Amino acid sequence: MDGISGLVTALRSGANEKLASDVTEAMTTNESFFFRDKTPFDLFTDRILPHMLKSRATQRKLRIWSAAASTGQEIYSLAMLINEAAGTRGWTFDLLGTDISAEVLERARLGMYTQFEVQRGLPIQLLMKYFKQVGETWQIDSKIRDMVKLGERNLMLPLADMGKFDIIFCRNVLIYFDQPTKKMVLERMAQLLPDDGCLLLGAAETVVGITDQFKPVPGTRGLYSRNPELLGSAAPAASAAPAAPAASRPATAPATAPAASTLSRTA
Q1: Of 128, 165, 185, 227, which shows the fewest CB atoms inside 10 Å?
Q2: Contacts of 39 (CB under 8 A, 6+ apart)
Q3: CB neighbours (10 Å) of residue 136?
Q4: What's the CA angle centered on 119, arms 114 and 121, to 5 degrees?
């Protein structure tokens, strides 16, 4: 292959799928950790989930999409919070994590994390409850893994075949796209959400000046909705929010510890 120009030509031809896959794996950024940035998970626990449990009490089902799942920490963080939450008995939670990288998704399916990875943001209570130590690594409980479906997805392609969601996490992805691509992805995501559906973006991302399909939810950072008024005001401290250990209080994981939920919550 004749240098960069030859590589570009080969990629544009579309004839070599393995080459395209290898280039994608080499270029993607896969930074992730449990309860990353804290705020989105506080919003999920204190504001979003209580609203959804109330507004969807008849159908008792929620669909949540992590659009850049990487090695799985974000979608597994949400699964743990749901499993800890009060008021979810008898509900069905459809949790989907997607990524363009097949390699990171394979790691996510295994649910295996290094000592360093479990020390980044994961509260010690959840480590002890939902992980078991396997040699020098930690594996998340199969009950949590079974709550999650994982699959490859390129956000540059149409999304309509994915069906409808109630909540979409698309954090720290749009920063890598140009303005027209951001607009395209956001407006396609808007079509997957109901009027009170929630979109969560990264701290450095916004919809402002890009699309009018979403509006910021007042009093929050990184939370957007097609119609924020339907979400109501912030829940009071004594609301029926999930009683999960606060993700803001990570503790150092022990080097050795005792070994320590389902798609439909029945207990």
Answers
A1: 227
A2: 203, 221, 222
A3: 8
A4: 125
Closest C-alpha to 265, from 86, 90, 142: 90
Structural domains of the chain sorted by starting position, each given as residue range(s) with its CATH number in brackets: 1-28 (no CATH), 31-231 (3.40.50.150)
Q: 3-state SS of the chain?
A: CCHHHHHHHHHHHCCCHHHHHHHHHHHCCCCCCCCCCCHHHHHHHHHHHHHHHHHCCCCCEEEEEECCCCCCHHHHHHHHHHHHCCCCCCCEEEEEEEECCHHHHHHHHHCEEEHHHHCCCCCHHHHHHHEEEECCEEEECHHHHCCEEEEECCCCCCCHHHCCCCEEEECCCHHHCCHHHHHHHHHHHHCCCCCCCEEEECCCCCCCCCCCCCEECCCCCCEEECCHHHHCCCCCCCCCCCCCCCCCCCCCCCCCCCCCCCCECCC
- Neighbouring residues of 165: CB distance < 8 A, sequence distance ≥ 6: 63, 64, 65, 96, 192, 193, 197
CB 64 within 8 A of CB 99: no
Mean pLDDT of 88-109: 95
Smallest CA-to-CA distance from 169 within 41, 80, 34, 31 is with: 41
- Chain segment 172-227, per-residue pLDDT in tens: 999 989 999 999 999 999 999 999 999 999 999 999 999 999 999 999 999 999 99
Residue 144 sits at φ, ψ, to 5 deg, of: -75, -40
pLDDT (tens digit per residue) in 19-64? 444 445 454 555 688 999 999 999 999 999 999 999 999 999 999 9
Please give the Cα distance from 209 to 218 (Å, whole number): 17
